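Re: weekly structure request thread

Next one in the queue (193 aa):
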Amino acid sequence: MPALGQRAFCEWLGTAFLLAAVVGSGIIARELTGDDALALLCNTLPTGAILLRGELPWSTATIYIAAQVLGGLVGVWAAHLMFELPLWQFSITQRTGPGQWLAEAVATFGLLLTIFGCVSRRPESVPYAVGLYITAAYWFTASTSFANPAVTIARSLSDTFAGIAPAGVAAFIVSQFAGMVAAVILSRWLWRK
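Done, posted below.
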């Protein structure tokens, strides 16, 4: 198994590329189409394509969380630089209200159940299943399926098609946590060993 530093770097790099794909494809989609529905489709495909349950000690999980948050910021900033946008910005896109919060709980619940189910039966299918789930969840959730606190934080720092106003971040993360708890409880019942 690679060293913790190597694994944390991979988390950082993977999250950076994920956010560069999410934000960059949203920017180019909006520029090329001028149509929100078509821009969402254009944003969905690269995001699903870039996404190719283990139990971690808290010390390792904390390092992974920090790596994902920092990687997300780098990815957003890379997308801004590629499209010659200001590096530092805050989103003004309001994503709030019970429907959005429920959508984030559902998105996170479904993503984690997908991962847990694959890990339980076919671990090699996780990358494909995650990519396909996120591609679908972009369209069946009102929130466009952030489903990850690091992604939510990073997207608040991009005033682009993919952004979320900073005031909405906490409620999204609480909703994601609720979805996670429900998925963990259900997965322990469904796939107990």
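The mean pLDDT is 89. DSSP finds seven helices and no strands in the chain.
Next request, please.
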